[in-house]
Each structure stands twice: as structure tokens, then as C-alpha cells.
Amino acid sequence: MYSEISRAGCVVFGRGPLGKPAACQRAPTHAGLVYFEHPRPRVWLAFACEEHHGALVGARPMLERDRVELARRMEARRRVAEEGAPVVPLEPLAVGSAARRLVERARAWAERDPGRSSTVDSRSGADVGHGIPVTPRNTASRETVDGS
């Protein structure tokens, strides 16, 4: 269902020209969580296109901070490809029971307002930051769902 989590694009597998599973090539439009329970619960920030965003937990339209993270991932992949830089695995946002709690909060947030189409205040144009964690563990401090 998911391609490589650190992918700088839609992380969902779609169907290739011959109907075989293939990584989606569309540009991401939404940010959300990808959660794996086994072998140990882990959750990552991931991106998906308009067609596949439903596969993410707590998906929401991308914000500027998501575009910054996506650009960082693209640069890291470029460095690996062009310069032979070492591949640095993407760290999960949370592991174990913290991952479970994070996913529960993201699902609850999404259920409270399923029609939410933006996290930008319509009056000021400011990003009010509702939603899922957006900063991977290996880059800076974490933000949590609804600021909690």
C-alpha cells in the first residue's frame, strides 16, 4: 500500500500502466501520518496526492512547513543520487505507546471536523497549525495534534 516513507512525493502505491503496483508519481497535496503496528508501533509524517490522501491518518492539505519538510527530503535524495552521500533513514515521529497515542489523537482530530479543508485562518491568512505532528524527530522539536 505504501512506497518508501521518506519518498519526496506521494507515498501510496497506485497502479502502473500494466495494472501492476507502482509508486504514485503525482505531486503531494496532503500531509498525514503513516502508522505501522508491527514489529513495534511507529508513525511517520508522510505526503500523498489528491487521489490518495485518504490512505493517510489525519490527512490535511499541505502547509508551508510541510513544503519545507518535503524540500528537505528532496534535497537529501538528490545528495544521495548525485554526490553519493550516505542514506540517512527517516526517523519516526513516535515509537511504541507514544505512536499509538499520536495516531489516536490524529484520528480524533480528523473525526471532529472531517470537512476541514484548511488550517489557514481565513481572516489573517496565518497557519493556525491544527492537525498532525509536522516536524520529524531528527530535525527539530516536535509539535503535537492540536498543540497538546
UniProtKB/TrEMBL annotation:
Region Disordered: what ranges?
107-148
Q: What is this protein called?
A: PARP-type domain-containing protein
Q: Which organism is it from?
A: Pseudonocardia zijingensis
